[in-house]
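Service request form, structural biology core

Requester: graduate student, group of Dr. S.
Request type: structure prediction, single chain
Budget code: on file
Notes: please return the result as structure tokens.

Sequence provided:
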Amino acid sequence: MNIHISEKALQDLEFTTVIQQVATFSISELGKKQVLETLPFSNKKRLLRELEFTNEYLSSFESDNRIPNHGFDNIYEQIKRLTIEDSYIETESFLKIASTSETIKELKKYFKKFHTYFPQLSILSENVDFIQEIIDDIKKVISPYGEVVDNASPELRKIRRSIGGLNGKIGQSFSSALSKAKASGYLDDIKESIIDNHRVLAVLAMYRKKVSGSLLGSSKSGNIVYIAPQATLAYQRELQNLEYEEKQEVIRILKTLSYKIRPYTALLESQLDYLTHLDVISSKTKYAYSINGLLPKIGENKRVYFKDAFHPILLVNNKEEALEVVPQTIELNEKQQIIVISGPNAGGKSITLKTIGLLQVMLQSGILIPVNEQSETTIFDTVLTDIGDNQSIENQLSTYSYRLKNMRYFLRKCNENTLFLIDEFGTGSDPELGGALAEIFLEEFYDKKAFGIITTHYSNLKVLANELDYVTNANMQFNEQTLEPLYKLYLGQAGSSFTFEVAQKNGIPFSLINKAKKRVETEKIRLDKTISKLQKERNRLHKNSENLEKQKTKGQKHIESLQDKEEKIQAKLAGFQELYDKNQKMLSLGRKTNELFNKYLQTNNKKELTLNFNKWVADEKVKYAKKNPTKPKTKSQKQQAKIVEKQLQEVIQKVENEVMKKVVEIRKVKNKEAKKLAKIKAEYIFKINDSVRLIDGNSVGTIEKIEKKKAFINYGNFTTEASLEKLELVEKRKG
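Core staff response, request fulfilled:
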């Protein structure tokens, strides 16, 4: 599908204003720039994917899984400089590159973790690569404060140590010269100052020849001269040489680092493109959140159903001024292909027309729209608009000529995948001739099966709309008493223009209005009057219907409330009954227990007590079984139970076999270990003070003496002798 929406349509619908509002939510200049360049998508597949991105991002606002910060710096210039051979970039630029890579790392990690919640955004993050070496290489060389670290190279470390040593010598030599000059009384009260980053002595002018060193300046009055001590100057020159060497070494290090990062410039550009795209998605999402926007169903069937649709610009402006915005509900489908809206001026016809067009264009630009979640729409190849007074001074075209030229374009582009929106259809020429031509245009759009909404005051178009099967009349509701607009669209009936009524309300004398009525064709007045009466009657019926609906809703709520109370009372009664039954049961058990216990106290016969108690328990068990009999099972259920039992037995048998196999294996291992241990014990040579026991015994004693193949064992209270072959080692002697 090749989608094309003209620039004129975007201007007519004030699409640029919406885009400017979206751009205020961008967190980067690159994101803002791309938002301001937003146009409707030309490819349906890309459009649907973009809508899914925004919809998923919006869902993160309603959960604890908020998407991490994705702020970033514009590093395109730095990347561009990196591509130049033997060039290098500053430390701050490297830190920006590292920060960008860190952000990518965090986002990829986040979307991988929450892939289930954000499937499309996860796929988007998977398409951008991340390389840890970029961050590691930069951090090895540059500190978080933007300085090349001492350990960046052995040479730099050596130079900086030398600089540190020299700074110490400079400080010592200056302090020495300061103390000497101070003791001699050569210094002014300020004692020292700074000139060209060098510490200098503030010497009284009369003693300038007494202090050896280089004269670097004097005060405005000339009373003080500033002298750098001779010893300090020598160290300063040496320091300047070292600082130059340090600068050259830093440049060499940055060039080396640039050389390492240079192969990744394409990767860095793709990361920047990804973050910019994510900022655009974020901007659209935040805007949608501010206007309660959502993603309506986008069906394959040709249908536009916007329920409770708000004009987004009007919504934002009125929100700032705390004014109410009236939502509109409108539907276009194959049975209601074109809607003709009529009614008085300032009634909201044009706003309704623009609302539908703007919401459709926004949606086809990947922006969520402020409608009810039950809304549905389709994707149009073309959106055509003819809204407002389009006089072209430059081309010397009148309003009507311009509109005819526009109609020619409509006729050429209109097809079954077109949405057209025309405000004040047929105006700009003779009412009868212009109206006739407008009829022909409307029939052409109808035959081409295009969807559309038009607003008009022409009676012939209202009549034509009533005659064509799939064209519907509609009007903007008006309070016929106060002649104030209600800004609500009503489908199914044409609207009166209330021309003479509005004129009378605005102070036009009644005599003049009557003269005007006489000059207008009688039939036209009768038609307008009939429409006006029908509209008034319909408004009255609508009010009655609303009142009945309110009463019905109120009655339904009352019934539901009574039902709820009844359910609660029944629940409480059931609870009380259950509690009563339990208490009665407990009392019965208590009485029986007390009876058995008293009898036992009288006879002291335990056997009789046990016998009676067991009999009582058996009786209670029989009673319980009678009250809670097992539910009878059908033949098929019994058969199924047998099958399940058989399967269960097979599983148990299988598990038992596996367990036995494991037991046999474990026994084999234990037998091997036992034989090994027995061999070790058999080969062991007993020693005095070893703890032992007889192979068939449990008592442990200590060997006191060994003679030939016999041992004398001390068990504490007695001593015995036994053959060494019958002994088992418990613990070797200590030490």
